[in-house]
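Following up on my earlier thread - several people asked me to post the actual chain instead of describing it. Fair enough. Here it is, all 191 residues.
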Amino acid sequence: MAVMDNRERLLQCALTLFADRGYDAVGVQEIVEKAGVTKPTLYHYFGSKHLLLEDLLSGYFTKLDALLIEAARYNGDLPLTLKRITETCFEFARQYPAFYRLQLGLWFAPQSSEGYQVVSRLHQVQFDLIQKVFTQAVVQHGNMRGRHRAYTATFIGMIHTYIGLALNGFAELNQALVEQAVHQFQHGIYS
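Reply from S.P.:
Thanks for posting it. Predicted structure:
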């Protein structure tokens, strides 16, 4: 088993603490104590708590975005594309629940907060990917024209709600929930 270096240990400890208690509730001293390093070590790798958060979230979002780019390839079959996107998000949340809890918490933080500023920029990539799917689907579903932003926000919100419910033990992120969620969503957009 490989030994975790100081940088990686700081990222993992910060993720655990931020996900458990929230970004604003955790101080640099607590992070370095949990990681078994000193403050100068944290500042050497990241420069600040804010930049540590940016690095932490960027790493996970980069992985998720790469998967979503593939899942969001639209081939004229909207239900299939929406299922692939939902499956991808659900699977990522199952693999990385602390990341998902953290980023969802930051998404609903005050707009002026450091955490929201970081996560909102990173969420924009996902929003743009999914919005492109709805824009492309207008060819087959003309009644969707001009509604792509609203559909994107609603679809992402639905996915995040189900993931939040699962993180708190009220749902299971399985194939049945994928089918149910996409079916439920589709009934509203085709009318």
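The mean pLDDT is 95. That should answer part of your original question.
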